[in-house]
Structures
1.
Amino acid sequence: MSKNHPLVTIKGKKDGLILQLDDQCSYTDLIQELKQKLSARNQAYSDGPLISVKVVTGNRYLTKPQQEEIQSLIRAEKSLFVAEVESNVITKEESEALLKNQQLTPLIKMIRSGQVLEVTGDLLLIGDVNSGAKVTATGNIYILGVLRGVAHAGLGGYRDKIIAASVMKPSQLIIGDIMNRSPEEPEESNFDPNRGDHLMESAFVDPETEQIVIDRLNTLFRRSKVEN
């Protein structure tokens, strides 16, 4: 164990502690110093309220048993609990899942009543979604056609996704865990395929109201430019 370089650094922050672990030393040395640091600070934490701890592992990959051991050591200090474990390293399986969630799936078909289409990542559908049908995606949903059924983007709780359609007449929209109510009497569409002047619309979650908003697609682009 290095005498000049601490293997475990504990820093205070407004809402808890940050526990920085060295990512170059052996795991055995790391655990030994972690026990010493926690034991030395035990008196400071034992009588106070619960304190959240963010564990930062850097470029060290921790196996599940190693993560459980570190969390167990921290929880043993009574007033401490692990709120988050942050790492720069992910497994091959996690990397493949991340890439899959970022892919775009293009389809040319009509989704008929009673059918359910499920996609990982973004969905580009060239065709209509009829009433009684449902399309879901972990990413964004883009429909070059009429959306009359149910569309659920951001499956898994991702509220930053959008649903866009050439003609937006859904029975229900869901983005992440936010659902809009079904319209009682849908407005008559002004879409005329022979005229070709209908503007594509998009649905997104307004972060201020946490409600789904439907607006023209170019309005969403303007909002993105202002935020960036």
2.
Amino acid sequence: MRDHDGRSVGLAIFGMQSRALRERLGMTQAELAGHIGYSESLVRMVERGERKPRPDYVERVDKALRAQGVLIAATPFLRQDRYPPWFIEYVETEANAVSLYKYDTHVVPGLLQTEEYARAVFSAHCPALDDEEVESSVLARLERQVLLTRKPAPTVGFVVEEWVLRRPIGGKGVLKSQLHRLLKCMAMRNVTIQVMPMGCEAHAGFDGPMTLLETPEARRLGYVEGQGVSTFVTKETEVSVLERRYGIIRTQALTTEDSARLIECLAGEL
């Protein structure tokens, strides 16, 4: 269950309880962090219900706050959603989209990532995720990819910067497998992938990544994100600007045939 901010209710309640116990003792977050051997930033995130605490953390906090097992008893009810709160609405919209178009500039789009590539991306997250969080995030990303094979099939298009396909995230072997994955996706009737070549001196995508979606009700939406925040673009005039911009980006990118040849060439170089 989630509260209105998209947080896990179990995590939110645990955080409020631990904060109340700490404040009852007149202890600051920094002092608690010193007692339990964890960072003050982690204490802060747990108390806000934004981070699932590890069992060792719960045991140490329970002891430091003299909770007499109250916090430990709540452990089975702690659950962290696989997606950060700011991303949940997008995931739900994406899952039901009848069309989706993306322009990406940093990494291969999540809907196209291999398991190894996704793991390398999440392993580079800052602040660092623990092993359990990385694996949970990878699984959640792979589960979203059912969109590509969903019935009825949505129309899906991607434009990716060439330098993204050259960055060896996870190592050359991982990148090579990722490039082959792109070629397999390009063979799907409902999926198109285009590459924006590095030789293109200027193009319409300099404002950054974007996603365009169409809902089953024929509502057209835009979506942009960055640095842990996201924004849905719902005003028709603003969505229209993004659509026109994306249309130009597609014309400036390589054709699907030339894109496939480039990807094959890049994979062959690895």
